[in-house]
Amino acid sequence: xxxxxLIDKAAELFQQGKFDEVIDVLRAPDAPNYKxxxxxxxLAYFSRGDAKGDVYSAHFFAERAMELGHDSKxxxxxxxxxxxxxxxxxxxxxEFEQIVTKDSSAAxxxxxxxxxxxxxxxxxxxxxxxxxxxLAPEDPVIAKGGAFIKDSRxxxxxxxxxxxxxxxxxSLTAQLKASDDxxxxxxxxxxxxxxxxxxxxxxxxxxxxxxxxxCQDACPAGTNIPEYLTSIYNGDYDAAYTINLEDNxxxxxxxxxxxxxxxSSCRHxxxxxxxxxxxxxxxxxxxxxxxxxxxxxxxxxxxxxxxVAIIGGGPAGLASARQLARLGHIVEVFEKHKRPGGMxxxxxxxxxxxxxIIEKEVSQIEALGVKITCNTExxxxxxxxxLTEDFDAVVIAAGTLRPNLLNLPGKELKGIHHGLEFLLDxxxxxxxxxxxxxxxxxxxxxxxxxxRTAWRLDSHEVKVLYRRSQDEMLITPGELExxxxxxxxxxxxxSPVAYIGDxxxxxxxxxxxxxxxxxxxxxxxxxxxxxxGSEFELPVDTVLLATGQFPETSWIDEALKKDLVGDDQWPxxxxxxxxxxxxxxxxxxxxxxxxSLIAAIGHAKQTVIEVDEFLVGERRVEKAVIVSDVExxxxxxxxxxxxxxxxxxxxxxxxxxxxEVETGYTQDLAVDETQRCYRCHYKFEIxxxxxxxxxxxxxxxxxxxxxxxxxxxxxxxxxxxxxxQEAKNSDEKKMIFINQEDCIRCGACVExxxxxxxxxxxxxxxxxxxxxKLKEKIVAKQSxxxxxxxx
Length: 791
Description:
- The chain is α/β, with parallel strands linked by helices.
- The protein has 32 helices and 23 strands.
- Strands 4-3-2-5-17 form a 5-stranded parallel beta sheet, with helices on both faces.
- Helix 24 links the parallel strand 8 (about 435-440) and strand 9 (about 460-465).
- It starts with a helix and ends in a 12-residue tail after the last helix.
- Mean pLDDT is about 85; it is low at about 150-185 and about 775-790.
């Protein structure tokens, strides 16, 4: 069929009012470039007007037809009406001004007047409205005439039915009638979340967050990372700090010493995309540059009168206390040491974490009414059984205080210490008699802290030895570089075999053996295998064992041990939150074994949900996803190429025991770093009712699979999109699909789309208390503060 035959057939169908068939006939696989075809497509889409995308398609083809030289007077009218429908009133007014005269139809006169009303140009609008009324006195809408001066500005163009050729120029009733039955929160079929906007709690909503916001999903505390990085970029440090505080309890602390699982998952660090965003250091900048000294969050639940005892004032215990207090419970923390903080005080050196930082963030918890009783050792000063009698619930957050001492020949010699014992004595100011030749055994956080602390105590030689390779170390990025800066050597692939003592029973040397890596063990890391005949000795006078630690359970009442403690002296309910004993719960390292601060906080937050349900008899706290519209993300493609900002630090010559090494980002550095964030909480979605299949977004995509031509989508039973079948040719192409997992939120597709078919929305995962009340507030467009408990 020739082009002219195609046009003639389409024109005949158009005259018969078969607009769907016109569109099917004219929509060839390639983008249309013939003016008559574009003219007919503009008329067909405009005349059909029964799909929300028709207004965009009609505008696109009208513009294209005019660009190609078509001179129909209908085309500029279509453009103007479509721009009005899209809410682009200034553009529409300029277009109407070019085509509307005193001799124009009643419909055009009226629409121009209505557009001027939207721009609050009432006097200019009135003559056009009056002329329309004279020309069409019987039209029920136009007959209202000047009455629209009062109420037309409140007509939401986006909620009106799409215009059709016939009734737009004969009767405007359908166009100006609000869509009372419009379900604005119901998604189109291929939307990966359950709501276009609002609150979703479906499995597919939570799955979208897990798949598409990898940093937040990797954070055990569920920190809303993209939101606070955006706040920092916008210069709102108080908001950034508060977002962190909601989720992870200790932003200033974690901004210095977090294990950073988020950075390992950061999309910017994926292969070919550069380095991950420095999320941890950015978190610190929020604390460093906020204006408010103390930030105390609101309570989210009414007072319950229920009393909860928490054993242990470390990260897990304090996180549990804060969350429970916010839910309305009465909380008392029992801490065996002289001050709260747990490993934050006792296990992390001052040069990494100044103590005033801990004190300030603990005081924000106390301000919620939490009572912290120090110098009280449960099992000695008060029993667990007594606490269960006096309180409605007890949370054991006692950490891991039982050291893993290597069972080697010579283990009874003097000069052999567990690393945490060493750090506790130094950090609490009790002093430590350290030798001149110090060996640290281990390859984790404690090993690094022991070595750097020993170096500051003027030991002549400090060396770290680890049984695996560098790749198997469980430390944060940059720690090995700091060892190197401070002149501390590290040797890999060696295991201790024995201690060697002198005549005074003082350790004087250690015997080691070299390893090679074998198959992975239960941790997923390759197991070290000794190499026969490779033993060697190293002279030492102090050995610091950073070889792990376990929960200490010996303090638990004998009567309760059968329900709480196993034969291996570990808690029976390992890694759980609730125990078999009524009223007693576990939180943090005491349940999971030694882990990072952020992992302990995340575990504690889940424990609180169990405790609260036990106390009030129902689950008040649940995870939800909030979907909201945004006009733009604020990102530009050039941000992708900004290099990662380094952390400023003091010179090695100034590094003393109490001098903080890292000095923090300036505000300029913080902005430079946070602009690198892809803002993964933004969802880009092609509305295929609007899409005209021009492929401009496909041509603009920066990654091979971020936008794909799809034959069919694959769905799980719960509605989650699990994959797609790629279209191999134009006939198979049923939609153009944005693959969220490969999308880097650059916005290139939005810029390329000629018909505004790509929606951008913000998707936030939150842990909510009193979900119904939050829904009511969102409906009322009020603040939701005070109803978010932290993710």
